[in-house]
Write a structure and sequence with these properties.
9-stranded antiparallel beta sheet, 1 helix, 6-stranded antiparallel beta sheet, Gal_mutarotase_sf_dom, mainly beta, Beta-galactosidase, Chain A, domain 5, globular
Length: 289
């Protein structure tokens, strides 16, 4: 485990999956879900080279079939720590004999975490080190404690969206999405959720509808805010468990459409890179106001 800190935050990250493990403020208050296996045994996995599910866990490159489990392999793979400072950590992952069996591309994936004041900037950098065009999706899956809940209480919380009437997709057929948009009711941008909101899995927004999402405490003040640039975002907590966390997931990619049997490169929200080219994006986690 590696740690960076300043006078406002202490952030811990693991080489395994380059995954955030802890976000604490100066008083020692924990904001990141602590991976209780009774509910969900992860903190903040990196999703690569796919986001969410493939139809029947299969995809095709030039007609050849491959298999990948939900969210890809990065979250279950050890990264290398390549840079460490007082306020920044940088990890990288390259293709290997194992990854090439399931994902036939050469790549370099770098993930960095930098703290400034009460903010954590998470940066993804994907480089094409292959001699052909590569295709990929990438996303985050950070899980945050829902404030003001006591042990044994049902899940209940409030999110603040920067869009008052967003429309969602449903991802409830074989772990894949179905056509059709459905308005999500908010109270002037305030989205009050319980576990029943996740009966059909994640609440999914595409078309860059949301760029800022806050988790509010009972006083209506933001405990955690995500500023995102991604074309899609998922909101999730495990249905039926009343787990005291909610995930806010920025995605450059999304599930397959149900029964999709096309080429990998033609998937909805696919990213591509020519040889020698790179992709970079970021999102920011703000603790408090």
């Amino acid at each position: 485990m590696e740690q960076i800190k300043n006078d406002k935050l202490t952030v811990t990250v693991s080489k395994h999956g380059a995954e955030l493990q802890s976000i604490k403020d100066a008083n020692g208050k924990e904001y990141l879900w602590q991976a209780d296996p009774k509910f969900w045994d992860r903190h903040s996995p990196i999703l690569f080279p796919i986001v969410c599910g493939l139809w029947e866990d299969k995809y095709r490159v030039n007609g050849k079939e491959y298999k990948l489990g939900r969210h890809g392999f990065a979250r279950d793979t050890d990264f290398k720590l390549i840079a460490q400072g007082d306020n920044q950590l940088v990890y990288c992952l390259n293709e290997s004999t194992e990854t090439l069996k399931d994902y036939p591309y050469h790549f370099n994936l770098a993930v960095s975490y930098k703290i400034t004041e009460n903010k954590i900037k998470v940066v993804w950098h994907v480089e094409n080190t292959d001699n052909k065009e590569i295709y990929f999706q990438i996303g985050g899956h950070p899980a945050f404690n829902v404030p003001d809940l006591k042990q044994g209480e049902p899940l209940a919380g409030t999110l603040k969206f920067d869009e008052k009437e967003p429309s969602r997709l449903y991802g409830n057929v074989g772990g894949c999405i179905t056509p059709g948009y459905h308005k999500v009711k908010t109270e002037d941008g305030l989205y009050k959720f319980t576990q029943n909101d996740f009966k059909d899995d994640a609440v999914i927004f595409d078309h860059s509808q949301l760029k800022k999402i806050s988790i509010l405490n009972k006083e209506g003040k933001p405990e955690v805010t995500l500023d995102i640039k991604t074309p899609a975002v998922g909101i999730w907590s495990p249905y039926g468990k009343d787990a005291h966390f909610v995930c806010i997931e920025p995605w450059y990619g999304i599930h397959d459409w149900a029964e999709y049997d096309g080429e990998f490169k033609d998937k909805y929200l696919m990213n591509k890179l020519l040889p020698g080219c790179s992709f970079m994006s970021e999102y920011t986690i703000t603790i408090g106001e």
